[in-house]
Amino acid sequence: MSIIVDKLTKRYDKQLAVNDISFKINKGEIVGFLGPNGAGKSTTMKILTGYISASSGSATVNGIDVSNDIISAKKIIGYLPENNPLYTEMYVKEYLGYVARIYGIKKNTNKAVDNVIEMTGLGIESHKKIEALSKGYKQRVGLAQALIHNPDILILDEPTTGLDPNQIVEIRDLITHIGSEKTVLLSTHIMQEVEAICGRTIIINRGKIVADGNTNKLIDLKNSTQQVYAEFESNLNDKLLSDIESFAEVTDKGDKWVTLKSIVQQDIRKDIFNTAVKNSTILLTLKEETTNLEDIFRDLTQ
User: Fold this and answer.
1) Where are the beta strands (DSSP E) in 49-163?
2) Could you list the residue range(s) of the whole structural domain that residue 67 is in?
3) Does 21 lie in the same domain as 131?
4) Which of 161, 192, 213 is the last residue of a domain?
5) Is residue 282 part of a domain?
6) What DSSP character marks residue 276?
7) How many domains does the chain have?
8) Strand, helix or coil at 55?
9) Long-range CB contact pairs, 176-181, < 8 A, 24+
10) The Cα angle at residue 109 between residues 108 and 113, in degrees rounded to 5
11) Would you say residue 221 has pLDDT above 80?
12) Which of 47, 106, 210, 287 is 20 to 30 A from 229, alpha carbon to alpha carbon?
């Protein structure tokens, strides 16, 4: 296992930020780590990277207990924090060279810098001071410093913040490419990003893990029960609703519309149409609804 989190807990005075969580991540996995603000994502990542200590429990990376050997752990981890702290008065190449030397890259510093600049698309901006860069390019510098020592494990907290749509796709492609050889734990609020690149999703809420599984299977499981939106020309009446409830659960409704969940193992759209005809009601809209990761996230964290 590349990452093992076992009964991890973190308290800040009376506040319980992370509450007895456990998970394991294998090499080559790209895992989306999701949760609302204040759920415990960044706290967990900071414990894994040795920036803060846990109140109890353990965090292990490639067999190294982070609390017992922080230096060895940091050598194999690339970390992009949420706020992307940079020495903005330094030039891009100067800063990346500085980071490379911190990681002990002394003989081939320039080569390591050039490689990571090419990898992250910083070439046209590499001659500038960091303070002169756009937010998107500053984010690329943060990603470059996380990659420069070729770590086994990447922990990325909001890596595409501030990037334009084209840059987001480029960074997604980069993460997908490096994820085939490394372990990646990725925090983001962009659900499409997780669906696009993460084979697995962990959702945390109020310090507890509320979901952990294959991303597509989580979505498919939620879609296993058919959900349909139906809009009628006239107001809904008790007879129509009663007929509908013989084959579907009404999950929401307005004066002239309902959202339905199937309670039978069949496509209920034909039943809805026939029920409208039976009740002499004109059906204006009939649409099958599918759930995405954002819907699942909201269900579990609201």
Assistant:
1) 56-61, 64-65, 77-80, 153-157
2) 3-213
3) yes
4) 213
5) yes
6) H
7) 2
8) coil
9) 176/30, 178/147, 178/154, 179/28, 179/29, 179/30, 179/154, 180/28, 181/28
10) 120
11) no
12) 210
Give the distance, in angstroms, between the CA of residue 272 and the centroid of all CA atoms in the same chain. 37
Indicate the residue type of 19. Answer: N
Residues in contact with 146: Cβ distance below 8 Å, sequence separation at least 6, in sequence order:
78, 79, 80, 154, 156
Inside any domain, residue 22: yes
CB 23 within 8 A of CB 60: no
- Longest alpha-carbon distance in the chain: 82
Tens-place pLDDT, residues 148-187 = 999 999 999 988 877 788 888 888 888 888 777 889 999 9
Measured distance CA(178)–CA(147) in Å, rounded: 10
List the CATH number of the domain containing 117. Answer: 3.40.50.300
The span from the CA of 13 to the CA of 19, in Å, is 14
Mention every residue, 6+ apart, whose C-beta is less than 8 A from residue 182. Answer: 27, 28, 151, 152, 153, 154
> How long, in residues, is the chain?
302
Coil/strand/helix, residue 78: strand
Mean pLDDT computed over 117-123: 90
Are residues 29 and 214 in contact, defined by beta-carbon separation less than 8 angstroms?
Answer: no
- CB atoms under 10 Å from CB of 118, counted, come to 12
